[in-house]
Amino acid sequence: MAVDQPDEPDRLPCGTMLDTLLAHLRADTLNEHEQHCPHCRSAAARHRSLVDAAAAAERDQAGAPPELLDRVMRVVRAEGRSADLIPLNDPGPGATRVRDTTAARILRAACEPVEGIDVGRCRIADTEDGIVVTMTARAVAGTPIPEATREIRRAVLASARDQLGWTIARVDIEIIDVE
Amino acid sequence: MGIHPDTRDETLVERAQDGDTGAFEELVRRHQDTVFRIALRTLDDHGEAADAAQEALITAWRKLPDLGDARTFRAWLYRIAHRRALNIIRARRATAAIDDEAAVPDPASGPEHQSMASSLRAALDTALAGLPPPQRTCWILRELEGLGYEEIAEIVDATPTAVRGRIHRARTQLVEALEPWR
C-alpha cells in the first residue's frame, strides 16, 4: 500500500472509505465489517460527535424566506422568453397568434398522460412544409419506445388540432435518455 | 398543466429552457432552500442572503438557455448562488472599512445552560467559524447539503481532488474541536 495517497486521503487501512463509514454511522446502518473492524471502530468513535453535531445542524437549517418564490417568479413571468408568434387558422376579422412557448405548453400537457415517457424540450416551427414539432423525451426503462412515441404523436396531433386548429406536418421525437 | 412531483429536474430544466415558467417555478421550489443557505452561510446576513438568492435564481432563469447539459442544473445553479454571495462579500470589503471583524456565530453560552445536543451544535458552529472559508463551504455542501464531490467541485470552481482535500482537512479539524464531547 502506498504511503502517499493524495487522491484518497480518506481510505482506511482496511479499505473502507471514510465517507461510506460516516454515511452508515449517520444512518445507523453499520455493516458487519464496520462493526467489528478495529480501523472502522476507531474511526467511527473519533467521528461520532461530528456526525451527531452535523445531523443536529442539518435538522435546524434555515429555509428560504417564504416570499422568495413569489419575488423570483414575478420577475420571471414578466420577462418570459423571447417567443415567436405562430398564426392560428382563424377566419377573423383580425389575426390570432399564439406564442410558440404557449403552444409548447399545450402540446406537452397533452403528452403528460402517456405512460413511461417524459417530454422535455418542445420546439415549434412554422416551416414551408407546415408546422413542425420537435421534442426531446426521456423514457422509463422497459417502456416500449415505438408504442410510447406513437401515443405521443397521436396526443400532439389531436391537441394541436382541437386546441390550436393546426394540422401538424411532422412530429420529430428525440429520445435522449432512459432511466 | 400541473407538474408531477416526480418529474425529474432534467425534464423541468428543458421545459424551462423552452420558456415554461411553470416548470421553472417547480425548480425554484425544489432548490430555493439550498440556494438561500449557500448565500446565508457566506454572507451571514438574512436580508442580504435573501437578495442574493433572488438575484441568483433570476440570473439562472436568464442564462438557462445556455446550459448545455440539463443534468448539471443543480450544481450550475448553486454555483451561481455561491459566486453571487462571494461578489457581495467582495463589494462589502471594498466599500466598508474594516470596522468590525467578520461576524462569527455566537459561540453561545456555556454547556451548563444547554442540553448536550445543543451545546454540541454550538461547538460545531464555533468550530466551523474557525475554518478557512473554502474548507467550511466544501464541508457544508458535503455534510449538510449532501452533495457529491464532483458537484461541489463545480460549485466552488475547484477540482474534485482539491475538494476531497478540503473536506478531509475540515473533518480533521472539526473532529479535534469536538473532542471534549466524545
Automatic annotation (TrEMBL), chain A:
Highest taxon of source: Bacteria
This chain's protein is named Asp23/Gls24 family envelope stress response protein
TrEMBL record, chain B:
Which InterPro entries does the record match to this protein?
Answer: RNA_pol_sigma-70-like (IPR039425), RNA_pol_sigma-70_dom (IPR014284), RNA_pol_sigma70_r2 (IPR007627), RNA_pol_sigma70_r4_t2 (IPR013249), RNA_pol_sigma_r2 (IPR013325), RNA_pol_sigma_r3/r4-like (IPR013324), WH-like_DNA-bd_sf (IPR036388)
Highest taxon listed in the record's lineage: Bacteria
Q: Which residues form the RNA polymerase sigma-70 region domain?
A: 27-94
Instruction: Answer whether the UniProt record assigns the keyword Transcription to this protein.
Output: yes
Q: Which GO terms describe its molecular function?
A: DNA binding; sigma factor activity
RNA polymerase sigma factor 70 region 4 type domain boundaries: 122-174
Please, one GO biological process term?
DNA-templated transcription initiation
User: What CDD domains would the database entry show?
Assistant: Sigma70_r4
Q: Which family does it belong to?
A: Belongs to the sigma-70 factor family. ECF subfamily.
What name is this protein filed under? RNA polymerase ECF family sigma subunit
Q: Which organism is it from?
A: Murinocardiopsis flavida
